[in-house]
Specification:
- One of its GO terms (molecular function) is diaminopimelate epimerase activity.
- With 276 residues, this protein is of the alpha+beta class.
- The protein is built from four helices and 18 strands.
- It has an 18-stranded mixed beta sheet that branches.
- The longest helix is centred in the first third of the chain and has 13 residues.
- It is globular, with a radius of gyration of 18 Å.
- Bound molecules: ligand LBFN2T5F.
- The ligand N[C@@H](CCC[C@H](N)C(=O)O)C(=O)O binds next to helix 2 and helix 4.
- The site of ligand LBFN2T5F has 19 residues, from helix 2 and helix 4.
Length: 276
């Protein structure tokens, strides 16, 4: 099957974006994995599929696959690329769209300066929402990994996140502890592991070991989750600059029951065709 694709990125978190409206797309996990492979395929952290929506109140359906071929619920950097893709391809004339994901509607908006703001929905802390195994809901949980115990905030931005505060993000044990947290038995659907350094009440530095992709240059939902966790713990203000290895994002959250807003760039790199 010959497929047209667009290579995009948000802060170096890179995507293969497929238009599933103009072309019929049915891909097995093996084909998706091959596309994501940086040596034998195109190479990316996630594959994003644009489809017609099922819900009457949505403009598009957004499906997300990690580089390991698994389908997941949400991708923040991808959401910014999604609205740029459908607008640039002429699939819509709207600059603000309603997008159906596996865990609800998100609303990305193209700004006049080329940045994209996304209403990422309301974060959830319920153990079943994540899912996470614990005796009861708390602000932080002690998680045992190998010979260490780390305190993590656990929440869902549509997808699951475990965020810990570290003294220095550069020396944090991301490569070693990341996979142990990602696959910890208390996360039945695995988890994205965030390592957040608090620089001040309005700025954090963040690295994320992503479920199904490993450490990425940036993670949009990870940035939302880290800021929400920091605000919930009284460590951060309502608007925070998140510095990642790929650049920075602005995250806003007004507190419990409110949606999270993320602002950052979306970049098209090149167009191509692949036989899968
Ligand atoms: N890079 C993304 C998150 C992609 C999905 C994640 N790895 C998961 O498995 O939940 C982002 O920008 O949010």
């Amino acid at each position: 099957m010959l497929l047209k694709f667009t290579k995009m990125h948000g802060l170096g978190n890179d995507f293969v974006v497929l238009d599933g409206i103009s072309q019929a797309i049915q891909l097995s996990p093996e084909q998706l994995k091959l596309m994501g492979d940086r040596h034998f395929g195109i190479g990316c952290d996630q594959i994003l599929l644009v489809e017609n929506p099922n819900a009457a109140d949505a403009d598009f359906r957004y499906r997300i696959f990690n580089a390991d071929g698994g389908e997941v619920q949400q991708c923040g950097n991808g959401a910014r690329c999604f609205v740029k893709f459908v607008y640039d391809k002429g699939l819509t004339k709207k600059t603000e769209i309603r997008v159906e994901t596996a865990t609800g509607i998100i609303i990305p908006r193209l700004e006049s300066d080329g940045q994209v703001t996304v209403n990422m929905g309301v974060p959830k802390f319920g153990l079943d929402d994540i899912p996470f195994v614990a005796d009861g809901q708390k602000l932080t949980y002690a998680l045992e990994i190998e010979n260490a115990t780390v305190d993590v905030s656990v929440l869902s931005m549509g997808n699951p996140h475990a965020v810990q505060v570290v003294h220095d993000v550069e020396s944090a044990l991301v490569e070693h502890h990341g996979p142990l947290i990602e696959q910890h038995v208390r996360f039945p659907e695995r988890v994205n592991a965030g390592f957040m350094q608090i620089v001040g009440r309005k700025q954090i530095k963040l690295r994320v070991y992503e479920r199904g992709a490993g450490e990425t240059l940036a993670c949009g939902t990870g940035a939302c989750a880290a800021v929400v966790a920091g605000i919930a713990r009284g460590l951060l203000d309502a608007e925070v600059n998140v510095t990642t290895h790929g650049g920075y994002l602005m995250i806003r959250w007004a507190g419990e029951g409110q949606p999270v807003f993320m602002t950052g760039p979306a970049v098209t790199v090149f167009e191509g065709e692949i036989n899968v």
